[in-house]
Design goal:
The chain is mostly helical and 155 residues long. The chain is built from nine helices and no strands. The protein is 56% helix and 0% strand.
Length: 155
């Protein structure tokens, strides 16, 4: 989100937000959609209460076993995958590399002046380790992670 937000503010002629400021805001619950932990917890709890109506998919699970997760999503949507190679086809069509390299996403602007390319980055689990200090990680864990762990949501 920090990368995406900075792409927006720089386009608007403002100075980018430092990572320290972003971590402070994240841990303080300053976010356009409210505190992340509240947002994630609400969806998690609703997915437990109404499993037929709310599907909770974690990015890490999608990356670790994409075929299983795309099959689970299809089943949830009432469109189970029944044909050989169907999951692989969906995964290819929705792959970050394929979508990122489509002309509309590499050169287009669908949301005002924001280039579509700003919506695509690395798609890697754990890349935060290349940016956050151990103190930042600990602060995030203490303010957000522990709340979610108490619900049985993370690690």
């Amino acid at each position: 989100m920090w990368h995406f937000y900075n792409a927006i503010v720089v386009m608007g002629g403002q100075e980018p937000v430092s990572l320290d400021e972003a971590v402070d805001g994240f841990c303080s619950g300053v976010h356009p959609f409210g505190p992340f932990s509240d947002h994630a917890a609400e969806y998690w709890l609703e997915s437990r209460r109404w499993p037929e109506k709310v599907l909770f998919v974690m990015y890490e699970e999608m990356k670790s076993d994409p075929k299983r997760e795309v099959s689970r999503i299809a089943e949830f949507m009432g469109r189970p995958l029944t044909k050989e190679g169907e999951a692989e086809e969906l995964l290819w069509r929705c792959s970050l590399e394929r979508l990122k390299n489509l002309e509309v996403n590499s050169t287009g602007h669908d949301v005002g002046p924001m280039p579509n390319a700003a919506f695509f980055r690395k798609g890697q689990v754990g890349d935060y380790k290349n940016y956050l200090t151990s103190q930042m990680e600990e602060r995030i864990h203490q303010t957000v992670g522990l709340k979610l762990e108490a619900l049985g949501l993370f690690f």
